[in-house]
Design brief:
about 140 residues, five-stranded mixed sheet, single chain, alpha+beta, about 35% strand, three-stranded antiparallel sheet, globular, binds cobalamin
Length: about 140
């Protein structure tokens, strides 16, 4: 009887160890991305920032992290009901309906392709090594 109980306990322990090692291997760590601030309408130098983003974390989080770490990057957003945060200004430069200017969100993937995400900064999930570009431009 005691032997049977011991066998049962050790097989339970084995199943538990298997399950926990499977879970641990599912945990994925943060990855690097960079963020470029590019004003296509003025003759100013681009700024580049590097940070780590949590596995499948949102761009807005990475932007907040950069903002907290340096005085060279500040941004403002306007929360909208339907699409979340709209990027209004970067480093004091704000989009403006009258001049038809805005901060466009682009991302250069690791293979060099530049995409225009079909969501805003609150929903975009950068890929590892993405170069996210905030481009001040006209529509
Ligand atoms: C016109 C338009 C724009 C114009 C708005 C300028 C203006 N003042 O008119 C410009 C060119 C600036 C623009 C930019 C972007 N847009 Co846009 N835009 C539209 C469009 C075609 C019409 C919106 C509209 O006028 N609705 C009618 C008015 C009466 O309603 P409204 O609520 O007042 O509209 C405002 C909001 O829609 C807001 N807005 C526009 N785009 C976006 C995007 C985001 C993320 C947010 C939060 C707000 C927002 O600006 C409108 C005018 O004030 C819609 C698609 C559609 N057919 O509806 C896409 C749409 C809303 N845009 C979209 C996107 C993705 C963007 C960008 C993120 C694209 C990019 N990669 O850069 C950027 C925003 C970047 C930033 N700074 O945060 C997506 C949003 C999807 C989502 N779930 O996030 C949509 C649905 C198009 C799509 N791809 O399917 N956009």
């Amino acid at each position: 009887m005691a032997l049977r109980l011991l066998a049962l306990l050790s097989s339970l322990l084995f199943v538990f160890e298997l399950a926990s090692s499977a879970c641990n291997s599912d945990i994925k760590g943060p990855y690097p991305i960079s963020l470029v601030v590019y004003n296509s309408l003025a003759d100013v130098k681009n700024l580049t920032f590097k940070t780590e983003i949590a596995y499948r974390g949102i761009l807005l989080g990475a932007m907040k992290k950069i903002q907290a770490s340096t005085d060279e990057f500040k941004f403002t957003i306007n929360e909208t009901l339907d699409y979340g945060p709209y990027l209004l200004s970067v480093n004091g430069v704000a989009g403006n309906d009258e001049n038809q200017t805005y901060w466009e969100l682009l991302s250069e993937l690791q293979n060099g392709t530049i995409i225009m995400p079909d969501v805003g900064v609150g929903c975009y999930i950068p890929n590892p090594h993405d170069k996210v570009i905030l481009k001040f431009t006209k529509w």
